[in-house]
């Protein structure tokens, strides 16, 4: 996915006697990101959405973009986490990936969040494949779709209602 500075979701919702016209036909939410200025990703919702649902859909798209920006997969021999032991835990595990070729910075490393893991066995032995993504992919929003729940901050603003034009 390309980097963008805004994610916009357009939708509509079913009308009723009290909800009709533009308010029902033009539901829009927008979130801004740290990306190239002037490049937006506009999503036409897959189904009718309320305003809150459009905000949640927009926030999910921001997280998907962040997850796709940096993704590292590693396969190693054995079941246990290298250096610390124990099995991987999606809820809490991070790793510092050291690779000057992947991360051309002074340190040549990046702290990343565990995205997935798979254990497998074959005649050659046991292997574990782990996949890591940028911490920004895990910025969560609270149930109201507006407040950050404090887990991580991804530099993007929460989706806000916006008038469609």
Automatic annotation (TrEMBL):
Highest taxon of the lineage: Bacteria
Protein name, entry field: Uncharacterized protein
Organism: Methylobacterium soli
UniProt lineage: Bacteria, Pseudomonadati, Pseudomonadota, Alphaproteobacteria, Hyphomicrobiales
């Amino acid at each position: 996915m390309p980097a963008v500075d805004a994610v916009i979701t357009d939708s509509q919702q079913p009308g009723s006697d009290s909800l009709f016209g533009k308010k029902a036909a033009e539901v829009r939410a927008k979130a801004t990101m740290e990306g190239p200025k002037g490049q937006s990703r506009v999503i036409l919702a897959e189904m009718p959405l309320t305003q809150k649902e459009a905000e949640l859909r927009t926030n999910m798209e921001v997280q998907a973009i962040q997850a796709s920006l940096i993704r590292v997969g590693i396969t190693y021999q054995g079941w246990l986490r290298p250096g610390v032991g124990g099995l991987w835990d999606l809820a809490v595990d991070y790793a510092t990936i050291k690779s000057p070729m992947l991360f051309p910075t002074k340190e040549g490393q990046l702290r990343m969040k565990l995205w997935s893991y798979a254990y497998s066995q074959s005649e050659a032995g046991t292997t574990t494949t782990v996949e890591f993504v940028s911490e920004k992919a895990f910025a969560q929003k609270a149930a109201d779709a507006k407040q950050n729940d404090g887990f991580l901050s991804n530099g993007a603003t929460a989706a806000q209602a916006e008038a469609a034009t």
